[in-house]
Amino acid sequence: xxxxxxxxxxxxxxxxxxxxxxxxxxxxxxxxxxxxxxxxxxxxxxxxxxxxxxxxxxxxxxxxxxxxxxxxxxxxxxxxxxxxxxxxxxxxxxxxxxxxxxxxxxxxxxxxxxxxxxxxxxxxxxxxxxxxxxxxxxxxxxxxxxxxxxxxxxxxxxxxxxxxxxxxxxxxxxxxxxxxxxxxxxxxxxxxxxxxxxxxxxxxxxxxxxxxxxxxxxxxxxxxxxxxxxxxxxxxxxxxxxxxxxxxxxxxxxxxxxxxxxxxxxxxxxxxxxxxxxxxxxxxxxxxxxxxxxxxxxxxxxxxxxxxxxxxxxxxxxxxxxxxxxxxxxxxxxxxxxxxxxxxxxxxxxxxxxxxxxxxxxxxxxxxxxxxxxxxxxxxxxxxxxxxxxxxxxxxxxxxxxxxxxxxxxxxxxxxxxxxxxxxxx
Length: 426
Ligand code: AMP
Ligand code: GLY
Known about the structure:
Elements: E1 2-7, H1 10-19, E2 27-32, E3 42-43, H2 51-60, E4 65-68, H3 71-75, H4 78-84, E5 89-90, H5 98-101, H6 103-112, E6 120-123, H7 126-135, E7 140-144, E8 153-156, H8 159-170, E9 182-186, E10 191-200, E11 204-206, E12 211-212, E13 215-217, E14 221-224, E15 229-232, H9 239-259, E16 265-275, E17 278-285, H10 292-296, H11 304-312, E18 327-335, E19 347-348, H12 351-354, E20 360-364, E21 367-370, E22 373-376, E23 380-388, H13 391-402, E24 410-411, H14 418-424
Parallel strand pairs: 1-2, 1-4, 2-3, 4-5
Antiparallel strand pairs: 6-9, 7-8, 7-9, 10-11, 10-16, 12-15, 13-14, 15-18, 16-17, 18-23, 18-24, 19-22, 20-23, 21-22
This protein binds adenosine monophosphate and glycine (GLY).
């Protein structure tokens, strides 16, 4: 098979790495890819949003299967466009991917199909939103409706912060049209977990649980980022809780989407807050998580291509996934300044020392290859990922690895996995 993977992050590096292990796959292209991906796939200089160009490429190269990493091409309808031309592509349709692309759409589905989530109200003008916030007696979260690359959520501790968030979305237009509609949500408290499932539109199959580290600084301080590290499994998700989330969140959502005439075939990622009243959905994503995928795929023993082909054939009930029981931890190395401004084109040293290490994987995000060197090219640069017999050993492996790598202004969190350690030691 010839496979095309779309995207350029460490998630896509992990996907390409896993897909390359399938005996069914003879050739992998990645558009646009990155420095690390270029070592195992042929990178093609087409952006993930350039749907028509991607289509032309897939047709010209007679691609057998396209796997979409990021949300933007899904929301632009890449799946519908490829399928209309008879091309096999894995991901939800444009209408189904609204579960991620519109927070209001997702909330309405949750409300209709009784999926537990925070209470919410929707606003299309500033005055009404301000009035609601001023009358509320509890902490609130302000969210832009549309896709904002993970930046459209303000968890506010007081009214001043709420007013600032509402002003910046409606008045300063910081998110453009993605902020034309604003959702105000009750603030939930608890631990977060990422629950990723694959669906064929009807059946679901679970990936291992995981936990992200959203904030830039240790101890969950500072602004939200795309994710600074992850581990799998997440001990906070007990077996019972896993079943509860599957039965109360994932299955009703998949069935609801089917009833709405928008069957969801692809990756359904539920960001869950585990509150003292049970699990509640924070958000849905219509794709694999980043960096969660980097901590999940090294544990997956089953061929990912087999899973995807089963999903596309509507036969996910026929596959049983096999997992490595060990734990996996991914630490993200970023460029100083991220998620704000940062410099690029810094030479990365130490990668060669890690290439032969057992149970250690370096997934590239913002890197480019120049001759035999790798240079930084983004906010998140690398994900150093370690497997271990338990979470402590996985943390040690990943930190030992990341300490071998250096570049100007390299930053990473020093506490990835700390919550998992605390959970298993109680
Ligand atoms: P989202 O993109 O909706 O998942 O939001 C990004 C992050 O904001 C989440 O991972 C949470 O850390 C936080 N968040 C979102 N909604 C809420 C909420 N209702 N209560 C508390 N924190 C939230
Ligand atoms: N790690 C969060 C996300 O992929 O949206």
